Amino acid sequence: MTDEPAVLEKSFRLSLGKIRIFFSILLMLILLGGFGYGYLENARMKVQLAQLVGVQQKRDVTSEQAIAELQKTVNAMQLSMQKSQSEWQAASEIKYLITMANDQLQFTHNINMTMQLLQQADKALQSSNDAHSLELRKALALDLANLEAKPKVDVTSIYLRLNALNDLMDKLPLPMQPLMADHSQSAGKMNETSAWKSMVNSTVQGLSKIVIVRKNDASALPIIMPDEKIFLYQNLHAELASASWGLLHENAVVYTESLARTIAWIEQYFVQDAQETKSILQQLTELQKMNVQPAAMTLTSYSMI
User: Fold this and answer.
1) Which of 69, 73, 105, 239 could link 262 by a cystine bridge, Cβ 3.0 to 4.6 Å?
2) Tens of pLDDT along 181-215?
3) What are the residue boundaries of the structural domains of the chain, listed by start?
4) pLDDT, tens digit, 9 for 90 and up, residues 7-57
């Protein structure tokens, strides 16, 4: 009887030890499971984070590529706009040069300036290779060739010659013819005539003291009174001024008719044998033969702008 409680106590202790070992093992398993789960969860989170980072990096790369592509597009648009603006400016410059050349030709008749403007327009077209630019360059080449072949009028030289002749007009000599009185026969012949003839002769002698008779040859120049002399020279100056106007405006009718009237008046009123008269008439005749109004010309290039 005395050994049974001891056995029971010993058995209880063994059972309690086993229980403790069991719970210790169980706790360790739980702890190990917790640690394992935590480790796995941590690893899973790291993998997810790595994936997120990778996705974000891909997104960043994609964004950068998109931004780069957008920048390229913007740059291309800017270059296109700049090119378009440059082409527009070049086209405007060419149009302006050809328009100015046409104005010089039609209104001021300055052939040299017209050619210079057309040459500048052709130079501005050298960088263009489109079909219209090539056709326009052909038209410019044709216009330049026609202008080169067009008869040149040295307006400056003719104008200076007209001005020089205008200064010489006042030196043209007028004829100086004395007035001749026509007297009747001497009174000694009155005795040989009848009484009625004597009366006629007497009347004629009385009139001869009042009326002066001038006898001029049919080819003699008319005599200009002193008060008419000023107007004659003024008229000559006016006709030469009119001829200068016709020259500057390429009006051949005004130019030639003014010189023709000047020549006619000089031949009518001034001494023809005088050296001044001969020299002035020769120069006026030479100037009258000059063509100050060449054939009108239209620029082919002007119709293409």
Assistant:
1) 239
2) 344 444 444 444 455 455 545 544 544 444 333 44
3) 3-149, 155-177+221-288, 180-215
4) 677 777 777 777 778 777 877 888 777 777 777 877 787 787 777 777 777
CA-to-CA distance for 42 and 32, rounded, in angstroms?
15
Q: Please indicate whether residue 287 or residue 30 has the higher confidence score (pLDDT).
A: 287
Q: Is the dihedral of CA 186, 189, 193, 198 positive or negative?
A: positive
How far is 181 from 112, CA to CA, in rounded Å? Answer: 65
Q: What is the dihedral of CA 30, 31, 32, 38, to 10 degrees?
A: 110
In the Cβ-directed half-sphere of 257, how many Cα atoms lie within 13 Å?
7
Cα separation, 161 vs 167, whole angstroms:
10
Residue 250 backbone zone (phi > 0: left; psi -120 to 50: alpha; other: beta): left
Q: Is the pTM of this model over 0.70?
A: no
Distance CA 70, CA 65 (A): 8
Helix axes 275-288, 155-168, angle to 10 degrees: 150
Q: Which residues of 99-132 are buried (b: 16+ CB within 10 A; e: fewer)?
A: ebbbebbeeebebeebbebbebbbeebeebeeee
Alpha carbon distance 262, 168 (integer Å): 13
Alpha helices in the chain (DSSP H): 3-103, 111-124, 131-149, 155-168, 195-208, 226-248, 252-269, 275-288
Q: What is the residue type of 195?
A: A
Answer for the pair 215, 180: CB distance below 8 angstroms, yes or no: yes
Give the residue carrying structure tokens 């056709």.
135
CA distance linking residue 89 with residue 50, whole number of Å? 57
Which residues are within 8 A (CB) of 276 and not within 5 positions of it... i.e. 6 or more apart?
Answer: 168, 171, 172, 173
Sign of CA dihedral 226, 228, 232, 237: positive
Least Cα distance to 169 among 270, 80, 252 occurs for: 270
Distance, CA of 104 to CA of 110 (rounded, Å) = 6
